[in-house]
């Protein structure tokens, strides 16, 4: 049997569990063609949740998923939207080609088929078109599609648009106000940048219902894990706390436990050993990363990953031999590098595995 604990890519169908409350809530939005802003810390399960929602709505809706993590220009943004829209058309090659002609007036597509997976990919030919024209073409195609069936359009890693110096959000607002059966889902993990796009006076203000995704609930985790492992509630709680609710790390540990202790009763020691294995595998890349830090950044990182309550106390500053102002500025630099994040005046490392590596390797 293949390992039932998935920790890379999207967890789909039988490997996906929990999120019942969230799915019901999002389904209501979709049924009413309303929009969603979904955000969380990294690796909580946003993309998996969106994919699962799309899977469940695959028959009654057109589902379009775009990941814009890599965009470097507004034209690339438009190109990803167009490609994803082209992908929404299913059928044999002949049907697809005739559909593309019907839905795209000014754009033609290069089509290639992967001989191994039979997956079709589309390359829009965009020469001579301005960004605004590409977007117009995209939305015209999208709206036409929505007359046949309801559409779910998800843009993952949406905060990336803040890196481009164009008003993509204002343009999106204009199209989103058109009365078509489209639900827009925006997802992302950089809390500040993504929520800033939806705050008062921003173009997308009040254009979507906000949902912050927490960890999976412990009863779903226990129910799923118990199907494949002998594990009790207290041990599951131990694992959840160790991972600080991060879904990916938790799944990775379950994955290892399933490979090594399928037939034993799981104990906290086994969980610790699985974590050690993960930290060991990551250690060289984390060391490389850590070596890129300046001396004060290293000190700041150590302080953040230790369990110090008041990081600016005289005691701490003395122990780490650092001035308050240098610590504050190093923290800011680590924040700019996206190594650390801040919530309610408390700094933390959003990547739980990196945080645990810091705790275990640097602070012993
Ligand atoms: N509901 C779930 N059931 C089972 N596994 C899940 C679930 N949600 C997430 N996972 C697992 O956790 C991993 C991280 O989830 P996912 O990539 O969906 O999170 P994310 O919030 O989109 O992360 P990122 O911030 O990196 O984009 C996935 O690879 C998947 O294997
Ligand atoms: Mg994701």
Structural class: alpha/beta
Order of helices and strands: HEHEHHEEHEHEHEHHHHHHHEEH
Count of runs of 4 or more consecutive helical residues: 15
Question: CATH homologous superfamily of the largest domain, by name?
Answer: P-loop containing nucleotide triphosphate hydrolases
Distance N to C terminus: 40 Å
Provide the residue-averaged pLDDT: 93
CATH topology of the largest domain: Rossmann fold
**Overall morphology:** globular
Strand order of the largest sheet: 2-5-6-1-7
User: What's the structural domain tally?
Assistant: 3
Output the CATH class name of the largest domain: Alpha Beta
Ligands, deduplicated? adenosine-5'-triphosphate, magnesium ion
Stretches with pLDDT under 50, minimum 5 residues:
none
């Amino acid at each position: 049997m293949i390992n039932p604990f998935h920790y890379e890519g999207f967890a789909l169908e039988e490997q996906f569990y929990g999120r019942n409350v969230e799915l019901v809530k999002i389904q209501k939005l979709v049924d009413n063609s309303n929009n969603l802003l979904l955000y969380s810390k990294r690796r909580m399960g946003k993309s998996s949740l969106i994919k699962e929602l799309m899977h469940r709505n695959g028959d009654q809706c057109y589902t379009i998923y775009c990941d814009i993590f890599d965009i470097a220009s507004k034209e690339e943004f438009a190109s990803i939207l167009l490609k994803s829209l082209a992908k929404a058309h299913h059928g044999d090659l002949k049907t697809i080609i005739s559909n593309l002609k019907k839905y795209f007036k000014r754009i033609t597509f290069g089509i290639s088929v992967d001989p191994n997976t039979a997956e079709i990919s589309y390359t829009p030919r965009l020469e001579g078109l301005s960004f605004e024209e590409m977007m117009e073409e995209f939305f015209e195609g999208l709206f036409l599609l929505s007359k046949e069936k309801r559409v779910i359009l998800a843009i993952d890693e949406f905060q990336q648009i803040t890196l481009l110096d164009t008003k993509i959000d204002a343009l999106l607002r204009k199209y989103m106000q058109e009365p078509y059966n489209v639900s827009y889902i925006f997802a992302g993990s950089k809390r500040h940048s993504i929520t800033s796009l939806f705050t008062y006076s921003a173009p997308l203000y009040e254009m979507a219902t906000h949902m912050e995704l927490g960890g999976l609930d412990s009863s779903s985790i226990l129910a799923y894990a118990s199907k494949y492992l002998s594990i009790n509630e207290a041990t599951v709680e131990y694992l959840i706390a160790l991972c600080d609710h991060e879904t990916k790390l938790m799944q990775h540990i379950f994955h290892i436990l399933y490979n090594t202790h399928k037939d034993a009763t799981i104990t906290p020691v086994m969980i610790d050993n699985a974590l050690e294995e993960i930290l060991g595998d990551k250690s060289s890349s984390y060391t490389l990363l850590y070596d890129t830090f300046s001396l004060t950044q290293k000190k700041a990182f150590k302080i953040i990953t230790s369990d110090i309550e008041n990081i600016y106390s005289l005691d701490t500053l003395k122990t780490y031999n650092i001035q308050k102002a240098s610590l504050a500025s190093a923290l800011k630099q680590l924040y700019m590098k996206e190594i650390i994040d801040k919530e309610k005046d408390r700094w933390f490392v959003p990547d739980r595995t990196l945080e645990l590596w810091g705790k275990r390797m640097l602070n012993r």
